[in-house]
Design goal:
binds flavin-adenine dinucleotide; Uridine Diphospho-n-acetylenolpyruvylglucosamine Reductase, domain 3; 5-stranded antiparallel beta sheet; 8-stranded antiparallel beta sheet; Vanillyl-alcohol Oxidase, Chain A, domain 3; 13 strands; 14 helices; alpha+beta; about 20% strand; globular
Length: about 425
């Protein structure tokens, strides 16, 4: 059953303004009704206006971005008029532009989301050698294909998959066994979830509170260790992850959960200050999967080379999440309607603790490689190198032109008040000239 529910319905905390509803605010309504936002960001502290505006995403092989669940928005334009934009009443391009508008249509006042009745989900953590799924430099063609097939089998056969690599997580184990550490020896954490008719195993309030309390400690401690020890002595990163990574295994490794709990699974995530860079790349055929695999392997190889040179610029993780393509013109995972059902995207991200020495140079080198992959687009919500800015707009090609045309036709911002470096770079340029006299 498909139904609609206004975000306003659960906006008790905020009174009438509904744009300020956070992902946490909407959880009780979802638990109560069994109707869910099918895929969403992990954070429970961000606002729906903030995440819809930038087409933020979660993971789900058949799911789009959060913007894809929006059915209407009231936006206050540059003239101060509250204008209602709705999927049912707009032409296709206007709606596809409104869905993710980077703030350039005005100030969002309220959002209506299409929620869906959903089964419970089984969430299982698997820890396997990374070398089982991603090629090492010495692998031949047949081995590479086998590894990729193994990965595709998991991703394409599950409701949702998240991959994490925390570097050096088996560093000392490998050394203690008399081996030499390579990224392939590290564990890959596969967080796999599947719809299930099984009853919830971890839904009791006391259990949720215990999990949340454990995570609060985990996040605060990680932030403190990174800030005070690892940012000063980065070569201790292998020691930290050789032990710290395995604390993840203290949490239950198989849970049947309600959908919002499975999605917003990491509480207090914002207690740990991080920097990150993320791109979406299309997954359409064997070549695009191979390109994704090469993106991943190039980072693991780079981290090993950095370590050999006495540096550890990647102090947290590399992560991948898989989605169906989006209908929002400016979503990084946008695909035109004609091919949307056959086009998926992977969002790949590198993250370090804020202040990690060497991060900027490392990030820029990775960005140069990743953005050269066909169809790669940066995720608006993450930091990207200034040098990539021109390419960021170009990567949206005709979709950006259609977005601009729809915005112009809608007449929401004649004075060009709502600025974005991508949508109206000329305005930004004039401002900079004014600022510098
Ligand atoms: C630890 C961490 C984890 C994250 N995880 C994910 C993830 O899993 N997936 C993902 O996609 N992203 C993720 N993000 C990115 C995050 O979802 C985005 O940065 C999001 O935009 C933050 O929302 P916010 O409510 O804090 O918005 P803000 O940061 O306050 O605003 C975001 C943008 O929206 C604009 N805006 C806000 N409100 C309005 C309004 N009412 N009208 C018009 N414009 C408005 C702001 O001007 C700004 O440009 C993560 C970020 C962090 C720090």
């Amino acid at each position: 059953m498909v139904t609609k529910a206004g975000v306003a319905a659960c906006s008790a905390r905020c009174g009438d303004p509904t744009a300020g509803v956070t992902t946490a605010d909407l959880i009780p309504l979802q638990l109560q009704t069994g109707l869910c936002v099918p895929s969403n960001v992990i954070l429970d502290t961000v606002t729906y206006a903030g995440i819809v505006n930038a087409a933020c995403h979660g993971t789900g092989w058949a799911e789009g971005t959060v913007s894809d669940y929006v059915t209407a928005m009231t936006i206050v334009d540059a003239d101060g008029a509250a204008r209602v934009w709705a999927e049912d009443t707009c032409d296709a391009d206007t709606w596809a532009a409104v869905q993710c508008n980077l703030g350039t249509w005005g100030v969002i006042y309220d959002i209506t989301l299409r929620l869906r009745a959903m089964a419970n989900v089984e969430v299982a953590n698997h820890f396997r050698p990374q070398g089982d799924y991603f090629a090492a430099p010495a692998d031949d063609g047949v081995t590479r294909e086998k590894k990729l097939a193994r990965l595709r089998h998991v991703v394409e056969g599950s409701t949702g998959t998240e991959l994490f690599w925390m570097p050096f997580n088996r560093y000392y184990h490998t050394l203690a066994a008399g081996g030499r550490w390579t990224p392939a020896a590290d564990d890959l954490w596969l967080r796999v979830f599947n719809d299930t008719a099984e009853p919830v195993t971890h839904g009791a309030p006391a259990v949720r509170a215990a999990l949340t309390a454990m995570q609060a400690w985990q996040m605060r401690l990680s932030d403190w260790i990174h800030r005070t020890i690892l940012s000063v002595h980065p070569l201790l990163v292998p020691a930290f992850y050789s032990a710290g990574f395995h604390t993840i295994k203290l949490f239950p490794q198989r849970m049947v959960e309600r959908v919002p709990h499975a999605i917003h699974y990491q509480a207090h995530i914002d207690a740990f200050k991080v920097v990150s860079f993320e791109v979406a790349v299309p997954l359409t055929d064997a070549a695009s999967w191979a390109a994704f695999s090469a993106m991943w392997s190039s980072v693991t190889t780079r981290v090993a080379a950095e370590h050999a040179a006495g540096r550890c610029p990647l102090t947290l993780a590399m992560e991948a999440r898989f989605v169906r393509s989006s209908g929002a013109l400016l979503a990084p995972s946008y695909a035109p309607a004609a091919v949307r059902d056959d086009t998926h995207h992977v969002y790949v991200e590198i993250l370090s603790a804020a202040g990690a020495p060497g991060w900027a140079a490392f990030r820029d080198a990775v960005a140069a490689e990743w953005l050269a992959v066909p169809g790669a687009r940066v995720h608006w919500s993450k930091q990207f190198p200034a040098a990539a800015a021109a390419g960021v707009a170009a990567a949206h090609g005709a979709a950006l032109d259609r977005f601009k045309a729809a915005r112009q036709a809608a007449g929401v911002d004649a004075p060009n008040m709502f600025q974005s470096a991508t949508v109206n770079p000329e305005v930004r340029h004039e401002c900079e000239l004014e600022a510098t006299g």
